[in-house]
């Protein structure tokens, strides 16, 4: 996951609206896109061009084809916006009026890509404290004409592009700025301010305080201090073939393929040295998105070390793209519970297991994303009565707080997930609650929900009404876990576990608006009896007073 400290700031020159624009976006937690544009002041609509250019790159990078490399994306999008600005200028004004510098800095994996048109700049503050200018200014060589641009976005119908790339490391700092910044400060002084860890606003204010107003231009600055780089890009780029077909008896790196475990034949039971394992391959040999998902899945799987999951690993000397898993013998919970509910003791143990699994993932910044009976394997306890449970399906695991994802199975998704809500502890607890409700009653509280359906949630029956063996305290825990309103649900896994381990402390749970007769029948009838008694007493008093 890409992690960085970021800051940006724009200070227009005194008494002007300003023609600079900048923005950045971290896409899918792996790709930094930063854009800085300085609208050319001599052009009537330089500021408009700068803002239009920045918005274009941020929006388009989010929707770029997954198969495009970063350099190709930068080139295609730059040529497109350049042509748009040039054409609009000539159509509306018959001369260049939509004109701006363009500075792009993109971080993917451990590589920094840069592109520049004009005289805005990209710098890199290295680990040894050196401030390197990574871009070249496109201005006239004559010192009296140094303000005249030889390249800019929108200047001509065709544009010559130079895209550079360099390795980048954790601890280094990427800086984008307009000429209004670097023209007013010596490079050594800027280096010192960056080394102190100051943000963009503080640095610009410091520079402005030491400059005369008449010498000031618009000042824009972006700073990105790298705290962690996404390791998945480098893993994906390892040149490993993906087999298109796989056959029984085939030997791969000493593992003999015994039998496919799914119809698509991308997950196999394999043997090596008299031991049985599971080998998983990407879903398709020529699908870039499938490869992305597989690399992420394998990366997450090998980080998981809790015994709630089967062990997974990636062999160091692979000759093909795959990863290995421990074979978990057993049947899934849905098959195990055909025509019978789960026992209360087993349900409590399952709730604790699901909590432990999710709590471990939370330490890694992850959530399972698809808790349901089919992803829970039931195994016989060794040497004693009863059963154990294991979680499977590393492919569903996603980063916590992922947005706009319907990852998971609709019938087990929290209501807010259908509206683009984030995946968090509360939404995962909802899936745990639905699973326990189904395991104990054989029914789904909100019914079967089809893929791509946006359901209407109505108050469900209490599970205790469908299975009278369920104790009232466990019924309250499950009903709170599956509350439609997140405000009524458990917020954190720890709250759920605390009540599961402390039945005597569980308070009866009822959603808002539930009638008194359902919340407390005894109180309802006591209140009714008192009202009836008072009514009869008043009637008697009235009769006696006549």
Question: Care to describe what's here?
Answer:
With 546 residues, the chain is α+β, with helices and mostly antiparallel strands. It folds into 4 domains: 3-230, Phosphatase 2c, domain 1; 240-326, Phosphorylase Kinase, domain 1 (2-Layer Sandwich); 331-514, Transferase(Phosphotransferase) domain 1 (Transferase(Phosphotransferase), domain 1, Orthogonal Bundle); 520-546. The protein is 32% helix and 20% strand. The protein has 15 helices and 21 strands. It has a 6-stranded antiparallel sheet with strand order 11-12-13-14-16-15. A hairpin with a 2-residue loop joins strand 4 and strand 5 (111-117). The protein starts with a strand and ends with a helix. 36% of the residues are buried.
List the helices and strands and how they pair.
Layout: E1 3-11, E2 20-27, E3 31-38, H1 46-62, H2 70-92, E4 102-108, E5 111-117, E6 121-125, E7 131-133, E8 163-167, E9 173-177, H3 179-182, H4 187-195, H5 200-209, E10 219-228, H6 232-236, E11 251-252, E12 255-260, E13 267-272, E14 275-280, H7 288-303, E15 312-313, E16 323-326, E17 331-332, H8 333-336, H9 344-363, E18 366-367, E19 376-380, E20 387-391, E21 398-399, H10 425-441, H11 463-466, H12 472-481, H13 493-501, H14 516-519, H15 521-545
Antiparallel strand pairs: 1-10, 2-3, 3-4, 4-5, 5-8, 6-7, 6-9, 9-10, 11-12, 12-13, 13-14, 14-16, 15-16, 17-19, 18-21, 19-20
Helix pairs in contact: 1-2, 9-10, 9-13, 10-12
């Amino acid at each position: 996951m890409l992690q960085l400290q970021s800051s940006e700031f724009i200070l227009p020159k005194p008494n002007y609206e300003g023609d600079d624009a900048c923005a950045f976006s971290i896409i899918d937690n792996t790709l930094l896109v930063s854009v800085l544009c300085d609208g050319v002041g001599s052009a009537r609509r330089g500021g408009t061009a700068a803002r239009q250019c920045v918005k274009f790159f941020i929006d388009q990078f989010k929707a770029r084809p997954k198969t495009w490399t970063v350099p190709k994306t930068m080139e295609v999008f730059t040529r497109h916006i350049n042509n748009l600005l040039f054409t609009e200028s000539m159509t509306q004004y018959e001369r260049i009026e939509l004109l701006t510098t363009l500075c792009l800095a993109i971080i993917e994996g451990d590589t920094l890509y840069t592109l520049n048109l004009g005289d805005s700049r990209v710098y890199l503050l290295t680990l040894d404290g050196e401030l390197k200018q990574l871009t070249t200014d496109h201005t006239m060589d004559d010192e009296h004409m140094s303000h005249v641009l030889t390249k800019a976005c929108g200047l001509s119908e065709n544009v010559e592009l130079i895209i550079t790339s360099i390795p980048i490391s954790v601890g280094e700092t990427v800086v984008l700025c307009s000429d209004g910044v670097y023209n007013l400060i010596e490079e050594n002084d800027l280096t010192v301010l960056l080394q102190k860890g100051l943000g963009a606003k503080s640095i610009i204010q410091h520079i402005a305080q030491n400059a005369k107003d008449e010498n000031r231009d618009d000042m824009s600055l972006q700073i990105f201090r790298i705290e962690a780089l996404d390791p998945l890009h480098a893993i994906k780029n390892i040149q490993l073939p993906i087999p298109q077909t796989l056959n029984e008896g085939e030997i791969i790196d000493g593992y003999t393929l015994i039998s496919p475990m799914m119809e698509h034949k991308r997950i196999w039971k394999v043997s090596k040295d008299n031991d049985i394992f599971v080998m998983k391959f990407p879903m398709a040999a020529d699908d870039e998105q499938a490869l992305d998902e597989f690399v992420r899945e394998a990366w997450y799987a090998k980080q998981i070390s809790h015994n709630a999951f089967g062990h997974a690993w990636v062999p160091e000397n692979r000759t093909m793209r795959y990863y290995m898993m421990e074979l978990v013998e057993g049947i899934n919970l849905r098959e195990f519970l055909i025509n019978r509910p789960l026992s209360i003791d087993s349900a409590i143990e399952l709730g604790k297991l699901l909590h432990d699994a999710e709590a471990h993932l939370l330490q890694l910044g992850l959530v399972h994303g698809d808790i349901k009976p089919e992803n829970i394997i039931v195994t016989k306890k060794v040497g004693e009565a009863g059963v154990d449970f294991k979680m499977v399906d590393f492919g569903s695991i996603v980063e916590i707080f992922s947005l706009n994802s319907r990852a998971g199975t609709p019938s087990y998704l929290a209501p807010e997930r259908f509206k683009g809500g984030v995946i968090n502890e509360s939404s995962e607890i909802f899936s745990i609650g639905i699973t326990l409700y189904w395991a104990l009653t054989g029914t789904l509280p909100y019914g079967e929900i089809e893929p791509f359906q946006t359901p209407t949630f109505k108050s469900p029956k209490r599970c205790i009404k469908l299975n009278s063996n369920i104790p009232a305290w466990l019924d309250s825990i499950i009903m709170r876990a599956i509350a439609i309103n997140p405000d009524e649900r458990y917020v954190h896994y720890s709250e759920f576990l605390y009540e599961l381990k402390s039945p005597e402390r569980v308070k009866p749970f009822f959603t808002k608006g539930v009638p008194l007769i359902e919340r407390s029948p005894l109180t309802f009838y006591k209140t009714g009896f008192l009202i009836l008694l008072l009514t009869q007493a008043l009637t008697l008093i009235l009769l006696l007073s006549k």
